Structures are given as C-alpha cells and as structure tokens.
Amino acid sequence: MRALITAAVSGAVFSLGLALGGMTDPTKVQGFLDLTGDWDPSLAFVMGGGLGSFALLQRLLIRRRDRPVFAPAFPACPSSRLDRRLLGGSAMFGVGWGLGGFCPGPALTSVASGGSTVLLFTLSMVGGMVLFRGLEALRARAVAQAAEGAEALPAAES
Amino acid sequence: MTSVLLPLLGGILIGVSSVMLLVFNGRIAGISGILGGLLRPSGETPWRLAFLGGLLGMGALLFALQPGLFGTGPTLGSGPVLTVAAGLLVGFGTRLGNGCTSGHGICGMGRGSKRSIVATMTFMATAVLTVFVLRTLTVGAA
Questions:
Q1: Does this complex have an ipTM over 0.90?
Q2: What is the rounded distance in angstroms from the CA atom of residue A107 to the CA atom of residue A11?
C-alpha cells in the first residue's frame, strides 16, 4: 500500500513538473525543436534541470542504499549494446514528437484538458503500443514455429 | 526571467519525482514503459496504475487551476491525419526503442546508459529534422 502511495505521489510531481516547465504546450515544444527557425530554448532548461537533478540525487541517495525502500533490488542498468530496434524506434519516436508536439508524459498529463487534438493523439499513441505488442506476439510465434520446425526436421530425416 | 526559472523548476520536479520512484519503488520513471506495460497485466500493474493515476489527477487539478498551461495543439502541421500519424509513431517507436524523453532522456542518461544517450540523440535529431521539414512545407504553402 505504501508503495502505491509513493508511486502516485511520484506521478503527480512528475506531471506538475511537466506542466510548469511548459511541456504540455505543443506549440512551445515545436518552438524548442525549431533550431533553424524561431528557436525557443526554454525547454532545454526542463530537460537540463530534470537530467541534472536526477543525476545528482541518484548519486547522493541511491548509491548509498543497497535496495529501494519498498522493493528487493534496484533495476540493473541495461547492456550497452546498440541495435536497430533502439535506433529505429527512437528515430520513429522523434518524428512523431516533432509532428505532434507531444511526448508520452505531457500527452497523458493533458488528457484531462479534454482537447480533441490531445485525446486523438493519446488514443493513437496507445494504438501504436497495441500494434507493437501484436507484431511482437506474431514475431514470437514465428520464431517458436521455426524452432519447432528445426527440431522436427532431423527427426523426419532419420 | 520566469522563462528560465519555471522550466528549470519544472525540470527539477521531474528529476525529484524520478528519483523518488527509484528510491521507494525501485522503478524507472519512463512514461512509455509504464503505459505500455499496462497492456500486459502483471504484478507490476498496481504501481503503474498508481503512478498514472497521480499523473492524470495532477493534470486534471492543474487544468482546473491554470488552464493556460495546456496548449490545444501544435502550431505547425495540425490536422487529424497528422495527429494520428504522430500518435502512432510515438506509441510504436517508444516501445520498439524501449523508452521516451523520460526513460531515456532523464533516467537513462542520468544513470550514464550508453543506449539511452544514443537513443536521446537519435530522437532529438529526428524531431528537429521533422519540425524543420514541417516549417519549410508550411511556409512554402502560405
């Protein structure tokens, strides 16, 4: 129960930061991304402030602890392997972010505003996630069938 | 001055929130991962719902108090077709690339992950390029 409260408070502080910082205004986001035009640098301070405070606080707090307060272990850092999925997925995400002016956090924070654009964007975003899950399931099934086929093949030959 | 201080304060709140989730819950505050993870119910579902509940609830409270914080849509290239395309790309891309602005840009980079640094450089580059193309096209059309 206490873990759910800390998660909920964390979510609330997160969206407070997004909205105060200006991330919930897609016009501002496109202005920040418009490097060659009328560039609005203010959102660089959101990203810089978030990255800086996270890096500092996690060094101060997390490195001194063996484990989280309500969980058995801290998540392991992912491998440093770069692959096509990471690059291709990130490239797609950037195109969508530039087109819509929303990334996932600000879109969800803005849902209660009831604007038709943000609602349509958020529904489509969830649709994209469902589509990804569906394709992953198909891929996993194809891989499993190929593995079964590979096992069955030598048996059929003998 | 507020054009710098408010964004800086907002960023610090995001950093504090992410550290809080890591210290208490041992979880990474990556919004796309938290939302996408809900599509497969598991033992992780309760904290994900609690986090998103807090996020959506604060969004509703802020909209009631300060509706000016929320923009209605992008300036360049608006319209339902582009909005749907943008949403699909963001949803699919963040799941394929395993993170978005928060998970890669704040938490991953803050933990010094090479993958996150490369991912953030990639999505920043394609986002800037997209806005450049949009602006060129919309100026050309005007």
A1: yes
A2: 14
At A83, is the secondary structure helix, strand, or coil?
Answer: coil
What pLDDT shows up at residue A80? 81
CB neighbour burial string for A51-61, b if at least 16 within 10 angstroms, e if fewer = bbbbbebbeee
Nearest by CB: B71 against A26, A54, A96:
A26
pLDDT tens string, chain B, 142 residues long: the values are: 568 999 999 999 999 999 999 999 999 999 999 999 999 999 999 999 999 999 999 999 999 999 999 998 888 888 999 999 999 999 999 999 999 999 999 999 999 999 999 999 999 999 999 999 999 988 655 4
Q: Phi/psi zone of residue B28: left (φ > 0), alpha (ψ -120 to 50 degrees), beta?
A: beta
Buried/exposed B46-76: b ≥16 CB within 10 Å, e otherwise: ebbbbbbebbbebbbebbeeeeebbbebbbb
From the list B80, B107, B86, B125, the residue with the least C-alpha distance to A62 is B107
Is A71 in contact with B23 (CB distance < 8 Å)? no
Cα B1 to the center of its chain, rounded Å: 25
Q: Which of A24, A84, A92, A111 to mutate to test the interface with B (most CBs of B within 10 A)?
A: A92
